[in-house]
Design brief:
about 130 residues; mainly alpha; TerB-like; about 65% helix
C-alpha cells in the first residue's frame, strides 16, 4: 500500500507544480487512486500528508508511473516549462533513461492534448532500453 500512496503523492506534486490543483487534475488523480484501490477519504488526506517517496520496483511500473505523470501534466491542456522540468526530474528519480524522458517530452507535442498513447510511450522506452 505504501508504494501506491507514494505513486499518488507524486501525481499530486505534479498537479501542484504550476499552482493549485485544478478540478480536472484532481478528478484524474482520484480516478487513478480508485484504480489503485485507494478510497476517496484516504486519497484526500494525501494532500496534507508526508509520504516517503518509493518508486515502483519494476521498470514497467516506473514507466507506467511516468506515463501517469505525463497525463496529469497534460490534463489542463497547458504544459509550461516548470512542469516539463518537473517531469524530467521525476523521470530521473524513477531511474528512467534521460534520453527516453527527453523523447517523451518532445513526443507529447505531437499528440492531441499531449496525451501519448501507452503503446507509443512503451516503444520510446524500448528504444532506449539497456
Amino acid at each position: 500500500m505504501e508504494e501506491k500512496l507514494s505513486v499518488l503523492k507524486e501525481l499530486i506534486k505534479m498537479a501542484r507544480v504550476d499552482a493549485d490543483v485544478r478540478e480536472m487534475e484532481y478528478r484524474l488523480i482520484l480516478e487513478m487512486a480508485k484504480l489503485l484501490g485507494v478510497e476517496k477519504d484516504h486519497f484526500d488526506l494525501l494532500f496534507d500528508e508526508y509520504i516517503e517517496y518509493k518508486p515502483p520496483s519494476s521498470e514497467f511500473d516506473r514507466i507506467l508511473q511516468f506515463h501517469r505523470l505525463v497525463l496529469v501534466a497534460n490534463v489542463d491542456l497547458n504544459v509550461n516549462n516548470k512542469e516539463k522540468l518537473h517531469l524530467k526530474e521525476c523521470g530521473i528519480r524513477l531511474g528512467l533513461r534521460p534520453e527516453a524522458v527527453d523523447r517523451v517530452l518532445k513526443e507529447m507535442t505531437l499528440h492531441e492534448n499531449g496525451m501519448i498513447p501507452t503503446t507509443v510511450m512503451l516503444k520510446i522506452f524500448q528504444t532506449y532500453h539497456n
